[in-house]
Amino acid sequence: MERYSRQILVDKFGKKGQELLKKKSALVVGIGGTGGLISQLLVRAGLGTVYINDYDYVSISNIHRQLLYDENDIGKKKVEVAAKKLAEMNSETRVIPLEGHLTSNVLEDYVKRVDIVMDGTDNFETRFLLNDVCVKHGKPWIYSGVLATYGNVMPIIPKKTACLRCLMRDLPEKYETTNTRGILNSIPSAIASMAVSLAFRILLGENVESAIYYYDGWELRIEKIPLKRQEDCPACSLGRYDFL
To answer: Which of 15, 74, 196, 228 has the fewest CB atoms within 10 Å, i.e. the most exposed one?
Structure first.
């Protein structure tokens, strides 16, 4: 256990937590700035199995914030590059690449296999789909979003916390992305770290509050905004999975 010795020394983690983590699995959807670091942290921490999914190729505009890639990777498939590098970080963790867009049926299949789903995406269409699949199958997932100089993290545990559709009933007609507003390169790392800390707590059996965490990386401010499950939520209350 020497590899994880410094982690085991943490009171809230310990040897028991490390052994439990080895039995757990996660699906990371999107392995760019946020998802790439989420993947690295999970692999380095000793999670048993990490599935990674992406459809994109590494571009020069990725390099400033997507720490999993470097200039030699430009033009290559992210999922292939990431799988190789992640495997080299920890041979004890199984890293399983899933290439391309995941259809609803395929996504459901993989969600049923894992203990938690991590959001590394950059669009709400995919996030609403993830929410439907995870709520339907009772799997926890963590929403992570970044833009400009800030980001949000929200742990979602079906039937216990608010889900994404409790927060946003329908897809926004318009929303900005890093393509339109940009992104400070320190923000994805901060949000990924918060998401993985929440994931550890969930995987180790701790209760987490129903809340969304807002991080302003320019003003160095974190806010926790409590959320309530909505009795009329189409997904987690009424069992209607419109995005599937």
So the answer is: 228
On whether residue 53 sits in a domain, the answer given is: yes
231: in domain: no
* CA separation for the pair 177, 160 (Å, rounded): 30
DSSP sequence for 58-102? --GGGTTT-TT--GGGTTSBHHHHHHHHHHHH-TTSEEEEEESPP
Residue 242 lies in a domain: no
CATH number at residue 78: 3.40.50.720
Q: Give me the domain span that covers residue 201.
A: 2-226
Q: Would the pLDDT of 172 be above 90?
A: no
Give the C-alpha separation, 215 to 221, whole Å.
Answer: 6
> Is residue 14, in this structure, part of any structural domain at all?
yes
Q: At residue 174, does pLDDT exceed 90? A: no
Tell me how far apart the alpha carbons of residues 76 and 88 are, in angstroms, rounded to a whole number. 18
Q: For the chain, how many structural domains are there in total?
A: 1
Q: Which of 150, 163, 146, 180 is nearest to 237 (CA)?
A: 163
The DSSP code for 103 is P
First to last CA, the chain: 42
pLDDT at 46 over 90: yes
Q: What is the pLDDT of residues 89-114, one digit of tens each?
A: 999 999 999 998 889 999 999 999 99
